[in-house]
């Protein structure tokens, strides 16, 4: 199906949904999934969450995680029951202070409140639980990682079900309070602003964090262990919190600091292309135990491998670009992953240009020439890669080429106007590629469907690099100084 046809169908579908929304129906259980084609069981229907209060205790010696998550939400239909995405052992569930029946199956916590919840009703859902998260898996996968001195709950697209119950999809964002009690000598790092610690009489300390802007569940993280935590103030007055694992290699640690401590400078640079930074705090966490980086809201997390060859500001630019592309404006469905990765990858081209290590055009030309026409690289469609190729290198590299193709087609003035107005229009919401294409056409006044059809939805190598030359060997072109580090960043990301 062509991109233009998708745009037309999307408009008709939206109109149909509006008509259906007004149709009365009998109370039913909420859907067990939100309808994402890539992950049918992700998210849930029937309610919208406004806030999560996650209050936990963690004992590293036996990986015991226990506590209570309180969810405030609103019913979006008459409900006889609803699901939460969760894999741990639950001891009790209450809905609006009444004990509810529940069962768990295949990563779903199915709740029966014993009375119909009317559309528009306020819901307070309290789930109490205790388990060893690392022993729980769904289809052989777990997002909870034990480390030498603690644990990490960090992953994409799934992390939340291994430490708190949720409506686990980017289309249902909420605010968060996260507090975790751990034995003295350990630190706990999460999103947003630090709300202090509370010393407890049993030799434990509770660490508290608060996120006041809408936040997707997979972007909510916790890192527990021995960290050097730095509390600073960014030039714009925001809290700037960084944390470095004390169990990592000291040489890598210094290289990481030389990179992540520059986050406010990089955020300031990115504001010039994307508009005002959308959140209340900045920072980063560097830790062993993961071989990827993830754009956790306000506090991206980096595996130590990114700094094994020295400082790497490109990965910092990539993850902080996601604060706009993916965090503030999230995917409406995971098929739209290009809206996250294409623009975060292109931010590396922009950063390269800014620090004088290669222009965006040079990086685009070299990337295009690097992959021969018969490479499997050109068979992955960034606009709809499939769940198994969602984080393929082509989504990053060909995705960045698609962004550069847009820039070449509309010119710099319209290009940056498109980006800034899009991010302002969709702030704290979610979006589709088709909506972005329509927005770009409106701002630029140019037909762009064919361009995006070529770069995002058509297999095979396009005839020429955007704004560049046809069919020249990469080895015959001067390689930008930034290129190897950008490639290494994307290789680690795409293999994670």
From TrEMBL:
Q: Which reaction does it catalyse?
A: Release of an N-terminal amino acid, Xaa-|-Yaa- from a peptide, amide or arylamide. Xaa is preferably Ala, but may be most amino acids including Pro (slow action). When a terminal hydrophobic residue is followed by a prolyl residue, the two may be released as an intact Xaa-Pro dipeptide
Please list the residue ranges annotated as the Aminopeptidase N-like N-terminal domain: 50-219
Q: Does the entry feature the keyword Phosphoprotein, yes or no?
A: no
Q: Name the enzyme group at the top EC level.
A: hydrolase
What are the residue boundaries of the Peptidase M1 membrane alanine aminopeptidase domain, all occurrences included? 277-455
CDD domains linked to this entry: M1_APN_like
Protein name, entry field: Aminopeptidase N
To which species is this protein native? Saccharothrix violaceirubra
């Amino acid at each position: 199906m062509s991109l233009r046809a998708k745009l037309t169908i999307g408009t008709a579908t939206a109109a149909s949904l509006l008509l259906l929304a007004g149709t009365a129906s009998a109370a039913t259980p909420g859907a067990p999934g939100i309808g994402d084609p890539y992950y049918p069981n992700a998210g849930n229907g029937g309610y919208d969450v406004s806030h999560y209060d996650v209050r936990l205790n963690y004992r590293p010696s036996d990986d015991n995680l226990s506590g209570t998550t309180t969810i405030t939400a609103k019913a979006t239909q008459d409900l006889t029951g609803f699901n939460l995405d969760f894999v741990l052992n639950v001891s009790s569930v209450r809905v609006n202070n009444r004990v509810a029946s529940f069962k768990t199956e295949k990563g779903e916590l199915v709740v029966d409140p014993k009375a119909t919840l009317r559309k528009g009703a306020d819901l307070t859902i309290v789930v109490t639980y205790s388990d060893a998260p690392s022993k729980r898996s769904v289809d052989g996968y777990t997002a909870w990682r034990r480390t030498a001195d603690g644990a990490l709950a960090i992953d994409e697209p799934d992390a939340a079900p291994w430490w708190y119950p949720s409506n686990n999809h980017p289309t249902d964002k909420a605010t968060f309070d996260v507090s975790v009690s751990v034995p003295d000598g350990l630190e706990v790092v999460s999103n947003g602003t630090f709300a202090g610690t509370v010393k407890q009489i049993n030799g434990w300390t509770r660490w508290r964090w608060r996120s006041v802007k809408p936040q997707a569940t997979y972007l909510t993280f916790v890192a527990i262990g021995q960290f050097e935590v730095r509390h600073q103030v960014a030039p714009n007055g925001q809290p700037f919190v960084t944390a470095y694992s004390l169990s990592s290699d000291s040489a890598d640690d210094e290289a990481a600091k030389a990179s992540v401590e520059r986050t406010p400078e990089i955020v300031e640079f990115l504001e010039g292309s994307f508009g005002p930074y959308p959140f209340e705090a900045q920072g980063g966490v560097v830790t062993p135990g993961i071989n990827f980086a993830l754009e956790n809201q306000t506090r991206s997390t980096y595996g130590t491998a990114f700094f094994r060859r020295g400082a790497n500001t490109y990965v910092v630019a990539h993850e902080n670009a996601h604060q706009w592309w993916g965090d503030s404006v999230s995917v409406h469905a995971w098929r739209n992953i290009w809206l996250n990765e294409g623009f975060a990858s292109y931010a590396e081209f922009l950063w390269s240009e800014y620090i004088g290590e290669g222009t965006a055009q040079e990086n685009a030309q070299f990337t295009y020439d690097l992959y021969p026409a018969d490479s499997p690289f050109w068979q992955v469609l960034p606009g709809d890669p499939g769940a198994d190729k969602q984080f393929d290198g082509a989504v990053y590299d060909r995705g960045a080429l698609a962004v550069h193709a847009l820039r070449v087609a509309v010119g710099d003035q319209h290009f940056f106007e498109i980006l800034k107005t899009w991010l302002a229009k969709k702030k704290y919401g979610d979006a589709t590629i088709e909506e972005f294409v329509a927005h770009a056409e409106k701002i630029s006044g140019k037909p762009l469907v064919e361009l995006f059809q070529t770069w995002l939805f058509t297999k095979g190598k396009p005839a020429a690099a955007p704004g560049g030359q046809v069919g020249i060997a990469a080895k015959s072109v001067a390689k930008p100084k930034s290129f190897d580090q950008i490639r290494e960043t994307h290789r680690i990301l795409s293999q994670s």
